Each structure stands twice: as C-alpha cells, then as structure tokens.
Amino acid sequence: xxxxxxVYERPAALTAAHTxxxxxxxxxxxxxxxxxxxxxxxxxxxxxxxxxxxxxxFIYNYIACDFVSAAHGRAPAVATGLKRVxxxxxxxxxxxxxxxxxxxxAEVLHxxxxxxxxxxxxxxxxxxxxxxxxxxxxxxxxxxxxxxxGGRDPHLAGYPVRxxxxxxxxxxxxxxxxxxxxxxxxxxxxKKALRTAFExxxxxxGFALVELLSTCPTNWGMTPEQxxxxxxxxxxxxxxxxxxxxxxxxxxxx
Length: 254
What we know:
The chain has a single domain, classed as Thiamin diphosphate (ThDP)-binding fold, Pyr/PP domains (Rossmann fold, 3-Layer(aba) Sandwich). 35% of the residues lie in helices and 17% in strands.
C-alpha cells in the first residue's frame, strides 16, 4: 500500500484565482511568499495591502486580505494615511520598479525618512512590464528594451537606480533588504526577509522595504528558463542581494 504525504499545500491566504501573469513571471512566487508570511504571523485578518499601477496591480485578486488601489507611484502615501488612521492594521504596499523607482521614488524615500510604520514590497524586473517593455530606472547598462533598442546608454539614460542603497540611508528606515526569486535558495531567503519586514512593523521599529529581483520573460524576449539565468548573470552584479539596514540586528538606538 502506497502512503502519500502532503509536502506542500496552497496557503489559505492565497486565493484560488487563476493568475493573469505571463508564463515564467515570478510575481506569483512573490504573492505566495507574502501570503504565507501574513498567514504564519496570523495578521491576515487585519492586513491591508496597497496595490500600485503596473502588472502588480491585480495582487488584490490573489491574497485574501483587504486592498486599496493607489495612483501611479503613490502607494507609500496611501499606506501612510491608512497606517496613521488605522494604527492597529498591518499595512503593506506591493510595487514594481516603474511605479516605485520612477514616478514614486520621492514617495518611498520620504516615507522612509519619516519612519512610517509600513512594509514595502518592491518587485524589480528592470523593465516596464505592463506598458510595452520600455526602459525602466532599474534597467542595467546595455539592456535592450522597446525604448532602448541599442541597449541602455548611460550617457543618454543614466545609470540604474539602486533603491535599497538609497533607502538604507534614511534614518527612519528600520529594515532594508534585497533578495532574488531566481532559485530555491534565494526564494527561501526572500521569505525570511519578508517575514522580518512585517515583524519590524509589528514591533513598531519603523519603515521596512524588501526588494525582490523578478523575471519578465515576455518583455525580455526570453524563455522562462533563460530569464532565470539572466537574473543571475546580469541583475545580481548590478543589484547584489543582502541586508542593507537592520536596526534590530545592529542594535542601533532610534
């Protein structure tokens, strides 16, 4: 008689909705990790997410908690208002690089400077995924996009914006980390970083941001397998993973 053992099941916090994402997109992995952490911390019933503009906007279909949609780039401002009015709620934003690192860069930097008690989940796939694959603030030098067919030229478009390194300089930032979603080992570290970021909010330490390097096979013009290798070969050298600020671990007096 064969005995089957369940080694994994969909967390109750993750809905059964069919994903709208392209094959090979790792937004789905980020959703699963976020749902698992909210469920394990037992805060799903008082969590409120802020959905940004971009491919990430439909996250409210996939995680079983309350959501608010924000104007392009304004998710941290909306999250700030929610947290100040409802301080007992667990408030998080879910934003792509076009939303957070371009039109919304000032919003996230000032939220960090103020030490807002919110958690920001930043999905970096180095391109504008929803609007046609244009050059993003995080596109590496030489990257071919629909608006940089010759590759990103730093003399014309500047250099990639490293969000974690910027946010980590803000005194109000309590936890800042970058992880990747390209292999199982990094995915495990990504979940740990997300949990730490939410725990930071629960402990009232200040602003927390987790950047997750993600794929966009469709706009990169690659297969899903190729896109995972591209993260490892092209993105990790530009956006090295790690913790950039951890107030609790460093015993920094706030």
